[in-house]
Amino acid sequence: MSSPPVHQSETESKKDETSINESQIDKSGQRVQKMFGEIAPRYDLMNHVLSGGTDYYWRWYTIRKASPDGTAPILDVCTGTGDLAFAYWKRGRKQIPVIGSDFTQEMLELAREKFQKKYRKESEATSVEFVQADTQALPFDDDRFQIVSVAFGLRNIADTMQGLKEMTRVCQPGGRVVILEFSLPGNKLLRGIYSWYFRNILPRIGQFFARNKHDAYEYLPETVSAFPYGKQLATLLEQAGLEKVKFIPLTFGIATLYIGHKPESNR
Fold first, then answer.
1. Whole-prediction pTM value?
2. Tens-place pLDDT, residues 29-62
3. Is domain 22-261 in CATH 3.10.310.70, yes or no?
4. What are phi and psi of 206, to 5 degrees?
């Protein structure tokens, strides 16, 4: 799927007129765990199908725009089945330790299986480790990781600001917090078409391929519509303690990459 040239946006994003308030969405830990546990076996397939394969490009762009530097470890939170964690591991020539954390055990089991099948035969110095953890209370020391990333998982955290603060806490001074998340197109006509597809077509496709009791593919358009994006989310990153925050819309704005730097400790 082709993409227009990406650019850094300086225009404050506007919410879709039909969006719902984020506080109306049930993002309780129990619901999120059960919902993603149910769709885990079809999670990768559905991501590729519903994005038209563009998710490969988004990750490819992310790890090049925010590449590893040095030997300090990398943390990917809300890692799901580990695609961004694996991408960072390979970008670091498989020499930089990478940890993928997630709230849902079923996702982590699939991530570990994926690593065993694809990479375990290779005799590399490091590997990708997967741990179960709540991003709102990460079980890691302060200032540990050179990059703390998340792809399409930030909006699933019950307390967004708490999640951002935790990601910032475990990031090294001078390191980066990298967020890849869905957003809404800036063009009003395209945003309307996209929102209609998200609300009327995507849930039916998702439910057909990955049947579940917790309406996961109804939840997806709800969270995308209600979640802050563009300048609004960049401002939250700054409030969490990051600086030099920039955001780059991708593929007509249906996804956005955010990069924030943790201030140096001696400043």
1. 0.84
2. 566 666 666 767 677 777 776 677 899 999 999 9
3. no
4. -60, -45
